[in-house]
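Try this one yourself first.
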């Protein structure tokens, strides 16, 4: 019997999840169709330059999903499911601090970490976990009730977890077992038809719509799926022309003439979806909840820690200027700030150590008999080596929180007079039972491996960026 490798499992899972979500949320299919149209148009207009941050095949197939769980135990279980697909937890995101409204979650993203695996299929799942222990959101009584509710549910059947463990250990599954794994895994993220306890859901919703979506039901589900687009501003315009209500802004860096960096995201607004509601007398009535939406993203170049510090500084500058001149469009303010402070070329980003690049020898460089220079800058300047930007594979907490906020049914409640419970990457690593990897370290490893290969080929001392 033939076997299915981890990356094939990952690709099949992403494709099936996308089909399932499109059936449940038809506007998502529209989003995917418009993304494909925009990508095809950009490719025609820009040619090879359109594929500088990934081939059109990769970009078209690329998805990231988002799910929400309630406890460390559930997070450990979902890590086993994604581990079967060759996906590891990367990055720590505290949306409690990034959001103005009540978003009581901490998050990580499960994704491939090897460059070859990312090129094959870069599926990611942004995974948020509820924080019932944070007294700013939950008093002692509600925390106890919530934790008891979460402890009593089962999100992932034992058969799925057993198959997941086997796939992770063996890095493949026999074809029949792979099919069963995919059926169970996709089924675990379908929207449940089980009636929702209206009173319990409402209790949590008064605290946070996100808390209600996680802890107010006995299952989990895909909260959104996100295609990648090469021109997110054009996609926003086309979706609006089709009558799809989009959120007010595109989150992340502004549209400008310089290099695309990090991540830009937007979405259509959460739709009212019919749900069965269980009433206090035990009867079931029809109702509706707004929890799922369609997000789209445009990915840019990964920034170094120094580059990320500059990005955060510029965001602060934009916030300050926007508060002083509320009549001026925030996008216009951001664009002006970026053009004054952000390097306007990839070459300057690299020279100032603000972004990650990999380096490779130029095979067809004209030779004049001279030997190679000893520094990376001169190797690039003289045409010995070509710098290629590293795609940003991760997320931005403020942007994620902005998307969440734009799709909430209300602001919720938050007692800022109480001290919040501390969480960090080390705590999350313990909770998930796996090391939460540092994205900066992953990008640096990718860059450094390419530099080692170049210096070895040229017989040079180790090169430094």
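Now uncover the answer:
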């Amino acid at each position: 019997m033939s076997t299915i490798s981890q990356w094939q499992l990952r690709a099949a899972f992403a494709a099936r999840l996308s089909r399932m979500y499109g059936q449940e949320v038809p506007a998502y299919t529209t989003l995917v169709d418009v993304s494909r149209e925009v990508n095809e148009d950009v490719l025609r207009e820009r040619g090879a330059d359109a594929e500088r941050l990934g081939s059109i095949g990769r970009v078209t197939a690329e998805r990231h999903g988002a799910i929400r769980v309630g406890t460390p135990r559930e997070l450990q279980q979902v890590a086993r499911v994604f581990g079967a697909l060759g996906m590891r937890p990367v990055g720590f995101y505290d949306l409690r601090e990034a959001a103005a409204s009540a978003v009581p979650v901490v998050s990580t993203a499960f994704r491939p970490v090897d460059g070859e695996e990312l090129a094959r299929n870069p599926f990611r799942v942004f995974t948020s976990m509820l924080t019932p222990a944070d007294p700013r959101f939950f008093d002692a009584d509600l925390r106890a009730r919530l934790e008891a509710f979460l402890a009593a549910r089962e999100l992932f059947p034992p058969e799925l977890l057993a198959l997941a463990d086997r796939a992770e250990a063996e890095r493949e599954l026999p074809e029949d077992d792979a099919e069963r794994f995919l059926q169970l895994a996709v089924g675990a993220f379908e929207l449940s038809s089980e009636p929702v306890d209206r009173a319990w859901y409402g209790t949590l919703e008064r605290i946070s719509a996100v808390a209600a979506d996680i802890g107010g039901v006995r299952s989990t589900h895909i909260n959104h799926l996100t295609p990648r687009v090469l021109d997110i501003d054009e996609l926003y315009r086309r979706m609006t022309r089709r009558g799809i209500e989009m959120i007010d802004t595109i989150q992340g860096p502004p549209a400008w003439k310089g290099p695309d960096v990090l991540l830009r995201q937007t979405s259509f607004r959460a739709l009212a979806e019919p749900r069965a509601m269980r009433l206090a007398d035990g009867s079931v009535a029809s109702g509706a909840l707004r929890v799922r939406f369609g997000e789209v993203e445009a990915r840019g170049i990964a920034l170094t820690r120094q580059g990320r510090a500059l990005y955060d500084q510029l965001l602060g500058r934009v916030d300050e200027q926007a508060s002083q001149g509320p009549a001026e469009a925030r996008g216009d303010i951001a664009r002006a700030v970026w053009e004054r402070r952000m390097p306007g070329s990839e070459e300057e980003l690299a020279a100032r150590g603000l972004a990650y690049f990999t380096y490779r020898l130029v095979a067809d460089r004209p030779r004049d008999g001279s030997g190679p220079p000893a520094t990376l800058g001169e190797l690039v300047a003289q045409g010995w080596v070509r710098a290629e930007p590293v795609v940003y594979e991760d997320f931005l907490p403020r942007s994620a929180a902005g998307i969440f906020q734009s799709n909430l049914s209300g602001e919720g409640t938050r007692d800022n007079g109480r001290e919040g419970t501390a969480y960090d990457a080390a705590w999350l690593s313990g909770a998930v039972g796996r090391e939460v990897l540092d994205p900066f370290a992953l990008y640096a490893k990718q860059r450094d491996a390419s530099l080692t290969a170049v210096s070895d080929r040229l017989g040079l001392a180790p090169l430094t960026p």
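Discussion: The chain has a mean pLDDT of 90. The longest strand covers residues 63-69.
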